[in-house]
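Ticket opened by: R.M.
Priority: normal
Category: complex prediction / small molecule

The reporter submitted a protein together with 2'-deoxyadenosine-5'-diphosphate and asked that the result be attached to this ticket for the collaborator who will pick it up next week. Submitted input follows.
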Amino acid sequence: MSSPNERTLVLVKPDGVSRGLVGEVLHRIETKGYRLVAMDLRVPGRDLLAEHYAEHHGKPFYAGLVDFMSSGPVVAIVAEGQRVVEGFRSLAGPTDPTVAPPGTIRGDLGRDWGHGITENVVHGSDSRESASREIKIWFPEL
Ligand code: DAT
Ligand code: MG
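Result attached by the on-call engineer:
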């Protein structure tokens, strides 16, 4: 079920922050009509990332993913609005930025930089259950 105060966790990943794309990502969230509830710039520790990416433990890309995500500051954002989980996933586009359609954040702003890891600018929770779990990890005070 959707609800007017549905929330999602968005991360502007280290590639997005270092390339100066925080404003662009916020602009897309705001112009879509979602409300910003919380925002924080920080370098995530490996323990926090292990919790955040628990579903990917043991996969071949896991170590590279955690190295990348802990390589610099990220901006963690909680956004709110009816069907925001699905809506932000649609704004973000598919995982691989090389083939993500133009018009999406990953399609417009991301590419393969040849670093052997998927740098795709943003994270967005994939379900209401994931959103609630991830928001507790990043913003336990909410
Ligand atoms: P998404 O971020 O689109 O929800 P995911 O949850 O499956 O994708 O994976 C989390 C991140 O891990 C993703 O943004 C980039 C990286 N990743 C996923 N699958 C990968 C793969 N096959 N090879 C390399 N990196 C991958
Ligand atoms: Mg995911």
